[in-house]
């Protein structure tokens, strides 16, 4: 499913300054500070082909590289719209990427029980990652250091360096391909099958991460583990190049769109899945949530009849990047269970 950028309050827009994801004690009432978008660099910067083979686990600060790490020619930089999204519906009447159905949570939970019979999920997972950079032309939109910054952001977030738990999941960059294909770059949803059929490598345990430019209402989309058997060539994650660390989307440029979408690839549903109704997202320690989080609210509680406030700072919600900082113990367990059930067995 995709990640969406949600509406922004005026108070949040008035704040400024680059900061790491905010904890409640450091957060301004009702929002977090919003940095200005980075100044575009010359068109001569190398494209998003950006990737490195190293898989270092960086300090949290690596998620804040210089603004020059990701950018396009001035004419190609677009500010994030008021309400983009991390996946789901299309725009301008076009169909969006595949999305789970409300009943899928219960179905997957039941199937997990069967698949995990006699199986012990791993306590640690290292995910081999192949990055596919789609370029609109000879001038690429992302530097090699920006791809590495995205990998570093993944390892920091999944390692609990910004908050929450260490999930035991790490990502090892194994290669980068660069494909000059303007139509794929401009519409990776409409050309998903052609793009992935041409570029996808590896089996169910290899993450294929595609970097292109999505519509102004979408930041990324992903496949789920239980879809793999039916469409192995379509497995993977697609994110907007402007959402990489230091990118042009000022509310969504710490690399957490990648964190969010890869959470889906590892088997997590949105925290607001099924609203206030059971089974919700299928995770015991994420409180029910009736609606996605917009901006950076404090004390959001859309299911007042249930225990706990909304998991508004969870990576699987829709908050601004600087207001996301955690996975829970239950989510960490579920990712490793889904890995054992769907991504590391012959049945996958």
Helix content: 10-25%
N-to-C order of helices and strands: HHEHEHHEEEHH
Q: Which strand order does the major sheet show?
A: 2-1-3-5-4
Q: What general outline do the C-alpha atoms trace?
A: globular
Number of strands: 5
Question: How many strands, which pairing sense, and closed or not: the largest β-sheet?
Answer: 5 strands, mixed
Low-confidence stretches: 6-83, 88-93
Number of helices: 7
* Structural class label: alpha/beta
From the structure above, extract its key features.
alpha/beta, 5 strands, 348 residues, five-stranded mixed β-sheet
Give an overview of the whole structure.
The longest helix has 15 residues, at 144-158. Strand 1 (125-135), helix 3 and strand 2 form a beta-alpha-beta unit. The chain has 7 helices and 5 strands; from the N terminus they run H-H-E-H-E-H-H-E-E-E-H-H. It has a 5-stranded mixed sheet with strand order 2-1-3-5-4. It has 348 residues and is of the alpha/beta class.
Give me the secondary-structure topology.
Blueprint: H1 10-14, H2 104-115, E1 125-135, H3 144-158, E2 169-180, H4 182-186, H5 192-199, E3 207-212, E4 220-222, E5 237-240, H6 256-265, H7 329-343
Parallel strand pairs: 1-2, 1-3, 3-5
Antiparallel strand pairs: 4-5
